[in-house]
Design brief:
alpha/beta; 2 domains; 4-stranded mixed beta sheet; two-stranded antiparallel ribbon; 62% helix; disordered C terminus; ABC-type transporter activity; transmembrane; membrane; ABCA; transmembrane helix
Length: 302
């Protein structure tokens, strides 16, 4: 019998092994049905999340030129520490640009500066780190939260990113910078700084998706493709435990046929994954097209 099996070609043995796997799948209908329905269910959940997730629609905004440097009512400006250098800087800054309506109050330490800030409605603190660097301390509702990089969708000149310009932050910074430059170089740079133009750059229309739903969609995609990896792994482990390969070799199985049969499985998995991704991306594009067309249709009706 062994010699007869060795006479059988590799392709015939491969077809026999594939047919054997087919019979196993038919025998274990419950597991096979789970392997088929599991990706479909998670794919439908993924599509449902795409449909219900809240999206923010931003229309296009043109270039917007902001006004010249201006200062909002800041009647009191405190600074610390009190040294000859800091006094000269604040005196030079007060004369040309801050004006006589602004009171400059020195404080010997940062604690007294913070304590005094609660006594004034509009109070700005200036803390000098050294003769060339300083920090501006505004009330939180005057300027946005301090970050290294601000990403803001500005569709008017009164957005958070432009609030630095209108709150007096930029004006005060320009005054102190020009004073430091004048003390160091004996040249006034205030006129050059006042000629600086601030522009909010134009933005194209866009759709912003919540990151929470992005995470849920990633989990759904991972769960949808999970059977393509778990099922082959369980099948290979089961064959190793039962030692089917060694038994078939005794009966005359070609190694090439066995490897061909194993190769067909990952090829099938790859094709299934590609097909699944094509379906998901096609549905995703159709959904996005509907979402983008929906505001336009509502505007046309209005």
């Amino acid at each position: 019998m062994t010699s007869e099996m060795k006479d059988v070609g590799v392709w015939a043995q491969t077809k026999t092994l594939l047919y054997k796997n087919y019979l196993v799948k038919c025998r274990t209908k419950k597991d096979t049905l789970q392997e088929i329905l599991y990706p479909l269910i998670w794919s439908q959940i993924w599509l449902l999340l795409v449909l219900i997730m809240p999206n923010k629609y931003y229309e296009a905004s043109p270039n917007d030129m902001l006004s010249d440097l201006e200062i909002s009512p800041l009647p009191t400006i405190g600074y610390t520490p009190v040294t000859n250098t800091t006094e000269n800087i604040m005196a030079v800054a007060w004369a040309p640009c801050l004006g006589s309506d602004v009171d400059i109050v020195p404080y010997h330490n940062e604690e007294s500066l913070k304590a005094a800030s609660s006594s004034f409605l509009h109070f700005v603190g200036v803390k000098f780190e050294d003769p060339m660097s300083y920090k501006l301390m505004f009330f939180p509702f005057f300027i946005p939260k301090s970050t290294l990089y601000i990403q803001e969708h500005c569709f008017s000149s009164r957005c958070d990113a432009a609030q630095y310009h209108y709150s007096g932050f930029t004006h005060l910074q320009a005054c102190i910078d020009s004073a430091i430059i004048k003390l160091k170089t004996n040249h006034s740079a205030w006129r050059e700084l006042t000629r600086t133009k601030v522009t909010i750059m134009e933005k194209l229309p866009m759709v912003e998706v919540d990151s929470y739903y992005h995470a849920l969609m990633s989990i759904c995609l991972a769960m949808a493709f999970l059977p393509f990896g778990c099922s082959p792994a369980a099948y290979i482990v089961a064959e190793k435990e039962k030692k089917l390969k060694e038994f078939m070799k005794i009966l005359g199985l070609h190694d090439t046929a066995f490897w061909y049969e194993d190769l067909c499985l990952p090829v099938y998995i790859c094709l299934g994954c590609i097909h699944r991704m094509d379906l998901l991306m096609a549905n995703r594009l159709c959904t996005l097209e509907v979402m983008l067309l929906q505001p336009r249709s509502l505007q046309s009706l209005l």
